[in-house]
Inverse folding.
């Protein structure tokens, strides 16, 4: 009995950690790229990155289903390799990562913009490559904001329901994440499982809020500190 | 400023005029011969989606003052809604379980419960399937990777599916392949999309789609147990109209429509 009650917990844990890891790197990469990109399509690309945040999750789910489904372009491609994503665990990761991506991307963009350009320029005058500047100067300074972004993505992936249900379905033991399990438990009148899962989610939510508060405090503190003296006599 | 004030005044006057006109409009003379308008909310199992729409329009032709608002969904979900106070007048479930639960909680109007229909549980596959599935037992073989069923805990067809698995002794083998749907039409859609290899729905659901084909019928003893009970909800504010509707559901005219869609009329 505990097996089935706790299985959504393990599935959600695996999904959320994997999705957040993917979103973390892709969000930072996208933010870095957009910071440098001055081309014509800047607004368009920015819009596409933020789209999953604005669209209803069911629309995102539908889009993913059309893309990865058996008649969709990516689905057909994967089929050539004998793989199929719909109604499988990787689908939960894809759905969670897609909806969480805008949060990571936007927060990372904001965090990078906050880094004083003078500090980066100082590094440039000292001969550092752009790559080195990013890793040794920009990213460490933007870290509190980026960390906050990671926490937000984590929270969003944990709560993802609509798109996950459409792309990954509810397969007990494989794709039934906590939100999906709660939905079916309520429909079935299984109060025990509902209460257990809701309590777990509340506990995790409070934990995430505490972590978020911590990183936000770090972010505002580091923003006030200027590393370059304003008056040089 | 003076301009804005004068525009605002005109708008206000217009609104007042509109309001007065609406109030003074000659009220439609109450049609002495016609009955007062009644609105019935019918909570019905998802498998009744197409047939009930036709039955309802046949009914409203005989009783033009009645408007029927159907709600379709998994019978378990509908049961929960009614338990939580959803304003349904009539409930038609695809299994006795949900109606029994409501009866136990004394939410049904005494004497109105009746067994209305029967159905056949079938195994379907996408119409372009090449897996040569011919029996429920094939679900246990490696040919089948994913099979869609309704949630056995709340969807009647999912419950019947589980019973078939038990009778064929394949419950353990099928367990890891099950993709759970929230109602029988969701299962049908999954099979239509080709994202699952097979699914278990009612024959009447399969009949509505050209994208699936029926490959097997459930054993007779399980099909014999399939029943659609109907009842009036005790909290209904239109009990008499609801009872009249129920009578119509058992009429010959309704019987013809149900049988046209493949239902068994009890």
């Amino acid at each position: 009995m505990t097996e089935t009650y706790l299985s959504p917990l393990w599935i959600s844990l695996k999904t959320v950690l994997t999705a957040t890891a993917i979103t973390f790197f892709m969000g930072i990469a996208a933010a870095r790229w957009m910071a440098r990109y001055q081309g014509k399509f800047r607004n368009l690309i920015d819009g596409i990155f933020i789209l999953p945040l604005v669209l209803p999750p069911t629309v995102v789910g539908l889009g993913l289903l059309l893309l990865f489904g058996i008649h969709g372009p990516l689905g057909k491609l994967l089929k050539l390799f004998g793989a199929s994503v719909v109604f499988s665990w990787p689908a939960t990761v894809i759905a969670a990562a897609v909806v969480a991506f805008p949060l990571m991307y936007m927060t990372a963009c904001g965090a990078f913009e906050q880094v004083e350009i003078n500090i980066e320029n100082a590094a440039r005058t000292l001969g550092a490559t752009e790559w080195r500047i990013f890793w040794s100067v920009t990213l460490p300074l933007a870290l509190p904001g980026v960390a906050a972004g990671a926490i937000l993505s984590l929270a969003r992936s944990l709560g993802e329901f609509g798109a996950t249900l459409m792309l990954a379905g509810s397969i007990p033991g494989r794709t039934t994440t906590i939100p999906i399990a709660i939905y079916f438990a309520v429909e079935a009148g299984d109060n025990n499982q509902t209460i257990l899962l809701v309590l777990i989610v509340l506990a995790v939510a409070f934990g995430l809020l505490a972590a978020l508060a911590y990183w936000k405090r770090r972010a505002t503190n580091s923003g006030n500190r200027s590393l370059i003296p304003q008056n040089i006599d | 400023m003076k301009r804005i004030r004068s525009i605002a005044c005109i708008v206000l006057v217009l609104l007042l005029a509109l309001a007065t006109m609406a109030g003074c409009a000659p009220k439609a003379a109450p049609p002495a011969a016609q009955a007062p308008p009644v609105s019935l909310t019918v909570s019905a199992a998802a498998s009744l989606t197409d047939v009930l729409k036709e039955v309802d329009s046949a009914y409203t032709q005989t009783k033009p003052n009645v408007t029927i608002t159907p709600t379709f969904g998994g019978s378990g979900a509908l049961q929960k809604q009614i338990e939580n106070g959803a304003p349904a007048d009539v409930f038609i479930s695809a299994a006795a379980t949900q109606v029994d639960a409501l009866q136990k909680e004394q939410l049904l109007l005494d004497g109105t419960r009746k067994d209305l229909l029967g159905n056949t549980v079938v195994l379907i596959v996408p119409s372009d399937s090449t897996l040569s599935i011919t029996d429920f037992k094939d679900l246990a073989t490696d040919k089948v990777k994913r099979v869609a069923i309704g949630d056995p805990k709340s969807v009647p067809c999912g419950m019947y599916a589980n019973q078939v698995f038990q009778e064929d002794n394949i419950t353990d083998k099928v367990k890891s392949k099950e993709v759970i749907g929230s109602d029988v039409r969701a299962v049908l859609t999954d099979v239509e999309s080709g994202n699952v290899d097979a699914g278990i729905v009612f024959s009447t659901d399969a009949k509505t789609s050209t994208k699936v084909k029926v490959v097997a019928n459930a054993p007779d003893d399980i099909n014999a147990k399939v029943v659609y009970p109907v009842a009036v909800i005790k909290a209904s504010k239109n009990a008499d109209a609801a009872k009249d509707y129920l009578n119509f559901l058992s009429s010959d005219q309704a019987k013809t429509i149900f049988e046209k869609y493949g239902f068994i009329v009890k």
In short: Chain A has one domain: 2-224.
